[in-house]
Amino acid sequence: xxxxxxxxxxxxxxxxxxxxxxxxxxxxxxxxxxxxxxxxxxxxxxxxxxxxxxxxxxxxxxxxxxxxxxxxxxxxxxxxxxxxxxxxxxxxxxxxxxxxxxxxxxxxxxxxxxxxxxxxxxxxxxxxxxxxxxxxxxxxxxxxxxxxxxxxxxxxxxxxxxxxxxxxxxxxxxxxxxxxxxxxxxxxxxxxxxxxxxxxxxxxxxxxxxxxxxxxxxxxxxxxxxxxxxxxxxxxxxxxxxxxxxxxxxxxxxxxxxxxxxxxxxxxxxxxxxxxxxxxxxxxxxxxxxxxxxxxxxxxxxxxxxxxxxxxxxxxxxxxxxxxxxxxxxxxxxxxxxxxxxxxxxxxxx
Length: 350
Ligand SMILES: Nc1ncnc2c1ncn2[C@@H]1O[C@H](COP(=O)(O)OP(=O)(O)OP(=O)(O)O)[C@@H](O)[C@H]1O
Prior knowledge:
Blueprint: E1 2-11, E2 14-23, E3 27-31, H1 38-45, E4 53-58, E5 61-65, E6 70-71, E7 79-82, H2 94-104, H3 109-122, H4 138-150, E8 156-160, H5 168-184, E9 188-192, H6 196-202, E10 205-210, E11 213-218, H7 220-225, H8 230-235, E12 239-246, E13 249-251, E14 257-259, E15 266-272, E16 278-280, E17 290-302, E18 305-310, E19 316-321, H9 322-328, E20 335-340, E21 346-349
Parallel strand pairs: 3-9, 3-10, 7-8, 8-9
Antiparallel strand pairs: 1-2, 1-4, 4-5, 5-6, 10-11, 12-13, 12-15, 13-14, 15-21, 16-20, 17-18, 17-20, 18-19
The structure holds adenosine-5'-triphosphate (ATP).
């Protein structure tokens, strides 16, 4: 049993083309730059905006067929939503918020309330049942929104940046909890994540949307090991090169060339970890096969290290320790030698 979606839709000038199959018990994360179509995709699956062509099926039931007026309303789709702004009813108590869905699906008041109470217990919020949403922290409100979605016993759970209302200090804990709740839910789950950590921590597979199209789908190791676009490489913190390989040499668009180990000839993608980029004040002696001189474009702090950006002749990022940065006299405009071993660049057909 699963979600099988294959559809197109247009919103003004924007065109979305989405196809994915997600199994029950599986979480697919949608990632992509702003405006890529992630929210539109969830809205279409939930029946909030119409598709133009194609179809959406859930557990063998057709939810919508494009252009045919065959479209189930959102409340007939067995879909639960958690939106980034959560959209809790401010005038209802927490327990009434959670009971609202079951109630509007025909459950009597007492049963709906008892189901809501059960869900509040599961997300650890029993003692907040009578509060108003305005009296909750971001993390508590997020748990209420999740309980409210799950209380309707959906077959498909759609979460649009569910952790965005939560401050950084509470995020890690809430992410762990959310993963547990997702694992305990046996339906299909789709989550829009802005942050790579959220996507990779919460999902079994990740689909990358760019410009309204799915450009890559895979598990975390597949995506991290073989990013197919600059956006994905940036997301996972890697340098990505796209060029043409010939006899172990990768020619890049600006005219630069890298020596790479074992790569078939033809269009090629190659990744390089920023920590594998060595920086020197003087031209290094010895074995690295790729050595060139470049000027520092920018330096940014990254937890215990510094990320150093170079724009030409090969655009890349290097990561160095604070100690090394001092020795190198690092700063924008500094001219340095860059060395990369051919074996540190992993290349694959592009
Ligand atoms: N209500 C709307 N009416 C018309 N166009 C819309 C509407 N909502 C979104 N769009 C357009 O659809 C495109 C995709 O937007 P969408 O919100 O789906 O992207 P997203 O990937 O979720 O972006 P973000 O990460 O910024 O939330 C954008 O170009 C946007 O301008």
